[in-house]
Each structure stands twice: as structure tokens, then as C-alpha cells.
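Deliverable D4.2, example record:
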Amino acid sequence: MSPSLVAVSYIAAIILFILSLGGLSNPESSRRGNLYGMIGMAIAVVATIAGRVAPAGLSWVVGALVVGGAIGLYLARTVKMTQMPELVAFMHSLVGLVAMIVGYASFIDPTASAGMTSAEAAIHHIEIYVGVLIGAVTLSGSVIAFGKLSARISGKPVLLPGRHWLNLAGLLVVIYFGYAFLQAHSIDEGMMPLVVMSVIALLFGVHMVMAIGGADMPVVVSMLNSYSGWAAAATGFMLSNDLLIVTGALVGSSGAILSYIMCRAMNRKFLAVIAGGFGGESAAPKAGGGAAQPAGEVVSVSAKETADLLKEAKSVVIVPGYGMAVAQAQHTVYEITKKLREMGKTVRFAIHPVAGRMPGHMNVLLAEAKVPYDIVLEMDEINEDFPDTDVVMVIGANDIVNPSAQEDPTSPIAGMPVLEVWKAHNSIVMKRSMASGYAGVDNPLFYKENNRMLFGDAKKMLDEVLAALN
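Output generated by the structure prediction step:
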């Protein structure tokens, strides 16, 4: 393929990637956005192979495509929707690994900088150093995020003494060895600074994500998404591939914007998330005071009583959370929704921006269950309607419906925008137990007079509710 045809193909792929991002911004157009992305990636791969791969290496590339495609197809068919957050984190780690491998290969390859002036070679080495740095942080950070999201690693933040000084010391060492790397006159001389930096970057990624508590994990997922994009862009600079640069920049910038949106939805600052420490496994009372303890009596209900409340209601709002995902209850939720709508009830869904373990987690689950898009509303769209709602069903959510965010200025989540479900005439919270949520903060909603608790597995309880409705 001629260079001009490759360039035209790259432009077409870039346009499709931009259209893909635009389509993914709305559930109704997300299928089209995914299709644009797949077509754009297919064009990019074919153009790259045809324009850059020598005939001698074609068999290796085709073999890699077959193996990678088979693994991807297997994962797509076998991974459960509840495992999507950790799968995304795992994919981010692969991007970081590739950035590191390409960086080392570009440095070792004697032809990569052949014919360059001293200034061009210095810029190329900076690209390698920064690319490996970002890739290493993305790799190790994503592996730890995978462990936390899959419960292989505790969600409790691990805060080392003087951790900020450790990070600063690591940064200074990375800068020092970066200077040594640029001053190296041979591959052997430059390899030591590159390896030392890689080790420090890997340790920094581990330290950074280990210090981040469970409540901030949705932000971590979008943050790592951004890092993987910048790692891909750095790889594009190393390989002089304009398409990879633009694609990486699109992913990196969109991930950064999404991280900002997530932080705003949690009333958190991005630097505070990186500093870590919020979101343990338990909410132990602080010495000398701390958050106010919930007061009141918990009233439990049965599935039949829940069905009776729904039958009497005219307006129902359903708030899905991670518990719904764990129980794989979204299809039963849809059946209940369909039944209630047939009975003339107004049924809508309220989605908090950080519900679940990654951005858009609940939207994906509801779309899988074929819940109509027009009744799925964001927090800002539905919060003012709760006072006029007869019944709110909270399915496996906790922190996103916690009134402490507004009523208790000493609470760790004070100021966080939440779904104001307690303002409805009645609320029903479905949980396995009275345990606190991922943020480790007690929820006074459970003790309010107009709230009822439906304890048990969400799928089993909802099946009983559906049977009672029928």
C-alpha cells in the first residue's frame, strides 16, 4: 500500500474514532458508536499491516492477530457483566505493558535513531523514557486495580508513613536517571537508567493505587483509562505513527475528562483521589468525635409486602447498585418494570454517576436487560422528582443514597451529590445485611421512618416480588 493511501486510511480511521466517542456519549447511540470504533480499528490495522509490515514479518503479525482475536473472543463470551470493571483494568495493564515493550525495543533497535541529528536523537530518547514511564505506571497500577475490583486485594487503602515524601523522592530519582539516560553514549550505558526508572515507575503505580480506597475506584478506572491513552500516544511518538498518537490523545483526554466528571460527582478533587485514603472496609468511629452515628429503628419487610407497596404506588423509581450486578438481577428488574408499567404505574430508573465499580456500569447492565433508554435518568434529571415519588426501590446501592452527604457535615462523604431517595413517600432498600457500603460509611437511610429493608439475595427477593405481583 502506498504511503498516501495509508495516510488517507489513517484519516478515515481517526474520523471514525471521533464519531465513535460521540456515539458512546449517549446510550441510544452507543451501538452505533461501537460500530464506528470497530470499523475504524479494522481500517487502522489493515492499513498499518499493508503499509508498514515487511512480507517476511507478515506471518508473525497474522499469527498474533489470530491468537489475540481468539483470546478477545473468549473473554467477550465468558466474562460476566459483574466482571467488566476488572476486565477493563486488565486491558489497561496490557496497554501499559505494550508501551514498555515498544519503548525498550525502540531503544535497543540501532536503526530506530539511525540518521538522526543529535537534537532529533535526544527527542527520540525523551519519547522512549516518558513512554516507558507512563507505561510502567499504567501496568502496575492497573494490575492492583484489577486485584481490588475482583476482591483479590482488600479495598481498604494502604497508607504508608510519609507516602507523599516517598513519591517525591521517587520523582526526583526518575528525573535524575532521565538526565543520565539522555547523556548515555551507548545502549549498554543507557540501559541501567532505563531499568531503574522502570522499577521505580512500577512501584509508584502499585503504591498509588494501593493507597486509593474502595470508594474512589470508579475514578481510578477512568484515570487508568486516561493513562493508557497517553501511553498509547507515547508509543505512537516512538514509532512515528500519527494514527496511534491521535488515538492515544483521544483516549487520554476523554479519560481525563471522565475522571473530572467522576470527581465532581463525588465532591472530590482529583489530587485528593491520587493522595488516597478514602473508602475503607469499615466505618469505625473516630476518636474524639467523627461522623454522627445513625439513630432510629430498622424495619424489615417481606417480598409480598414490597409487592403490595408497589401495587398501591402510582410512581416508582428504581435505583440500581453494585448489589444488583453481583446478583445478576437486572433481567428480573426489567420483568418487574414491565409488569408495573402494564399496571399503569410510572416507572423510572435513577442512575448515579459513580454507581457500581466503573463509569456507566449500571447503564450497561440495564441496556443488557433491554430496559428502555427513555426511562433511565441521570441523578441531576431525577433528584427533584423524589418528593412526588410514591416508592423508591434501592437495589444493592449504598453510598450513592446516603443522606449523611447532606445532613452530616462531619461525614467522610459530606458534600457528595447523592440520590435523595429519602424524600420519597416510601423507600425500600434491598441488601444482604446492614453492612456499610464500599466507602465504609454507615447509612442513616436504613433507620428513617419511611424506609423499609428487604434483606436477602437481590435476585431471589426480586423473583419473589415478581411472583407476588403476578
